[in-house]
Write a structure and sequence with these properties.
Chain lengths: ~325, ~350
């Protein structure tokens, strides 16, 4: 249970600092089952900040999304810090970005939230289809209390949580400057049963499955944009010469895009699930990410985003690295 | 309003009749979501859908269109496109989506005539289906439209219990209701339709304030408001690709050593590349510029040029936005910003 007053006080204190530009957190949003990212530019903005099980977005994406228009003559770049409200899983993204030298630790002020799991908005939508004037989801001990149009129902967490929360290893942010509430120890372990089951299918079945999924893709790149690790200045799909991926939207190009995206996150994906959540076409992108995460864990005993001091997986070599997959 | 009646038992027969003369696209349910797909059997249609995941826009304005093919090299040979003029029908289109065609028509029909769009549009029959159970984020009534309006379809079916009330709105529609499946409607049927319509209108709970919005927007172009709205934008293209009226496109030549084609693909004003110039200069360098542009295009430029707001209130961009940029809220608040 996160005390919102403590959170708001921390946001106020942070945004009040001279060396902080703004703080990113969550407000209750305008519609549906989801909190929305929100920004505090001054102390009074902290009042709208909330934390509840609908706070699903990974806000670690925002420092990398900042617009940097060319400076006018005589204009100095704004080097002030960015404050961010982060859950355990989200913090891994910042750790990984720091590891890759995309950000410096001192560029961000992290308001950490020890998180006991969030809801999957898609699962809630299935439970409550149709019209709703007001929706509220609260933590209620080990359950979620969902109040829709004045009526409260309790659900077990497993029923409404996304897969990533069911196997969360790091409920408490790995790095933080302020922690809201007490640290929670991670006791869960990743569960690769679904991936192992899928691996056992025939090549033909696997291909058919992905063909069906990639065929839906509309190439809006929401998966890329929602991903805190996709922060290349120029994405390879935007390069015209050479054109690695064509703009035509068809199965072949869609497959190229989706596989390249997954491969470019090898050893970097921190399993926050934002790509899959953002996908308007419901493509199960985490299945691809998870397969790669599993392989990397098994082969190199490596996990992304847990140690800011470590080297990125693809930037290091150990003499005993397995190499049977090298042709 | 002189209407007709189609009994529910006769619906499959009616669809089969249309299928005899047209390729029929209709709402089909796939994994709890509805898409417009070509149907082979009337049974495949989901007559009770809320809102299709994607608008039927791509049936007229394809996401990828090959304008012509060519053989690359010094002896270029150009092969003109094969514009398909077969008869098609969209069965079960919602009044809002039908209005979106009316909104984008001038883009493809007026100053420059786009043969692809125009051919498809002229050969397209629109069989509307009134929306009796609007989605939580539907707001068509904000534009004085009705979820049961026949204005932009050839014929409109409204579910009034054990039968459909049928309204005719075009010459194409008149031909269709000549079929023996349609019977003249009674006064009671007409009243029932009005009741159903009223119930649907009343169940829409969200409203956008658009009173004099074009004039209000004129005064707040440089306002800080746009930065505040856009700070959370991820700059993906979801809102534009789910939008029934967004119609921007990009043109590219895509070729291999032996064959190539000039393709037209949907573009999105939410990405920096959209306005990036060859010099490297970008007139819309920030997300605030881009989010503002999308709102202005729909609520200011379009009404000024074509006298209609380029939004139909389908709510898809609200549902699809990963960060809750809510067009109802944005436009309503923009109207309240002090210049």
């Amino acid at each position: 249970m996160v005390d919102e007053k403590t959170l708001r006080d921390a946001v106020k204190k942070t945004v009040g600092r001279k060396d902080v530009k703004y703080v990113v957190g969550y407000d209750k949003g305008t519609t549906g089952f989801q909190a929305a990212p929100t920004f505090a530019y001054e102390e009074k903005d902290a009042e709208k900040f909330v934390f509840n099980p609908t706070c699903v977005n990974n806000l670690a994406v925002y420092p990398m999304l900042e617009d940097k228009p060319p400076l006018r003559k005589g204009e100095e770049p704004d080097t002030r810090k960015i404050g961010i409200v982060l859950k355990g899983c989200d913090s891994r993204a910042i750790v990984q970005i720091i590891q890759e030298k995309g950000l410096k630790r001192e560029d961000v002020v992290i308001i950490g939230i020890p998180c006991t799991g969030v809801i999957d908005p898609k699962k809630l939508k299935v439970k409550f289809p149709g019209q709703h004037k007001s929706v509220e989801v609260k933590y209620d001990n080990d359950k979620f209390a969902v109040t829709v149009d004045g009526k409260t129902q309790k659900f077990s967490k497993d029923e409404l949580m996304p897969e990533k929360c069911k196997e969360c290893e790091y409920p408490t942010p790995i790095i933080h400057d302020i922690l809201i509430g007490k640290e929670i120890k991670g006791v869960k372990k990743p569960d690769y049963k679904e991936i192992e089951g899928f691996e056992k299918k025939s090549l033909d079945d696997k291909w058919k499955n992905w063909e069906k999924e990639f065929d839906k893709c509309i190439r809006c790149y929401a998966c890329r944009q929602a991903c805190p690790m996709c922060y290349c200045k120029e994405c390879m799909v935007e390069i015209l010469d050479p054109q690695w991926v064509r703009r035509s939207v068809n199965l072949s190009e869609n497959t190229a895009w989706n596989l390249l995206r997954a491969f470019h996150l090898a050893g970097r994906c921190i399993s926050c699930g934002e790509c899959e959540r953002s996908c308007p076409m419901d493509i199960p992108l985490m299945k691809l990410n998870k397969k790669i995460t599993k392989d990397i864990h098994e082969m190199f005993d490596y996990k992304a985003g847990v140690d800011a001091e470590a080297k990125p997986l693809l930037a290091m070599f150990k003499p005993d690295d397995p190499e049977e997959f090298i042709l | 309003m002189s209407g007709y009646i189609l009994s529910k038992d006769n619906l499959p027969k009616f669809i089969t009749e249309i299928m005899g003369k047209n390729k029929v696209f209709a709402p089909v349910e796939v994994n709890d979501e509805t898409y417009f797909k070509e149907i082979k059997n009337p049974k495949d249609i989901n007559m009770k859908y809320d809102n299709s995941k994607l608008p039927p826009k791509s049936l007229l304005f394809c996401q990828t269109e090959t304008l012509f093919k060519f053989t690359p090299g010094t002896k270029v040979k150009i092969q003109p496109p094969d514009i398909n003029n077969s008869k098609k029908a969209i069965f079960g289109i919602r009044p809002c989506d039908a209005k979106s065609f009316f909104i984008i028509d001038p883009v493809f029909k007026e100053d420059f005539e786009d043969p692809f769009y125009v051919t498809r549009r002229d050969n397209m029959l629109l069989v509307g289906l009134s929306c009796t159970n609007p989605y939580p984020n539907c707001f068509c009534t904000s534009f004085n439209d009705s979820p049961a309006s026949s204005k932009h379809v050839d014929i409109l079916l409204t579910d009034i219990g054990e039968k459909y009330f049928v309204e005719v709105n075009s010459e194409k529609g008149k031909k269709i209701v000549k079929s023996s499946l349609f019977k003249p409607a009674t006064k009671a049927d007409e009243t029932k339709k009005k009741e159903v319509e009223k119930k649907a209108v009343n169940s829409i709970t969200r409203f956008q304030k658009i009173d004099k919005i074009d004039e209000k927007l004129d005064k707040i172009f440089e306002n800080h408001f746009w930065k505040e709205i856009a700070d959370k934008c991820l700059r993906c293209g979801t809102c534009t690709y789910l939008c029934p009226t967004c119609h921007c496109f990009d043109i590219q030549d895509e070729s291999t050593m032996i064959e190539g084609g000039r393709v037209r693909i949907w573009d999105t004003c939410m990405i920096p590349e959209y306005t990036l110039q060859a010099s490297g200069y970008n007139p819309r360098p920030t997300r605030a510029n881009r989010v503002r542009n999308r709102v202005y295009h729909k609520y200011n430029y379009y009404p000024k040029n074509l006298d209609v707001i380029a939004c139909v209130g389908c709510g898809r961009c609200i549902e699809g936005c990963p960060v809750n940029i809510d067009i109802i809220d944005v436009v309503t608040r923009a109207g309240e910003v002090k210049p």
